Amino acid sequence: MPELPEVEVTRLSFAARIAGARIEAVLMGKPLRWPLGCEVQQLQGRRVQAVRRRGKYLLIDLSEGMLLMHLGMSGSVSFGLNLPAAGKHDHFDMVTSLGTLRLHDPRRFGAVVYASGEDDAVAQKLLGRLGVEPLSEAFDALAFYQALKRRKTAIKQVLLGGETVVGVGNIYASEVLFLAGIRPTTQALRISKPRAALLHHAIRQVLTQAVAKGGSTLRDFSNADGEAGHFQLDAMVYDRAGLPCKVCAAPIKSIRQGQRSTFYCAHCQKP
Ligand SMILES: [Zn+2]
Hints:
The chain is built from eight helices and ten strands.
């Protein structure tokens, strides 16, 4: 499943190239997770002004209205002037004066949704509950600590929930908690201010590195046919159950939390 860094790298891969493009046609394939919400003809003639990101949504600002694109479980985006004819897993083609933007999504959990603006009900339904952006100035260490104080849930669940800070998915949640030395099962409200600061720093560090790494493997990622995989992550704990911890050599443990796998080192990560 594409996580925040993959979505951000996807954005960086076409945002500058599509800016200013005039929409010539929009072609839909099989139904995606949600309907487009407008007639495709309505989009014709509008211009793409910018591509932003909020959580795992790509926000494509048009001269009138916007498109919210989500990659779902298996979506990937390509943009170019000479794309091959749409295949059976290509479900959204936006043909513009500067190239075609295509959503390839074999499992069809992704979506492209039209909204008149970020404040309208359609957009708010998708974006309204999202927490602060981890790579933005608004992600403040003290405010993060105070938000954790209000949550009794295990810290891993709080991170995955996306309401406190958005975009820390399952892989990165295990990694940032290792980096911060915090046991994933620790109740969020029991995390001290200094430890919350470590976690805040770890979140920014891990996600920033993943985006930077993605930038260097962009070609492979955007050409991914079918499975939009994760970037090669030098995981410290994720998917390393039973293997020696890279810091202390104790075997990495694996548990289930909310039906998702969690990996941690019982020696390096304190409750
Ligand atoms: Zn360890």
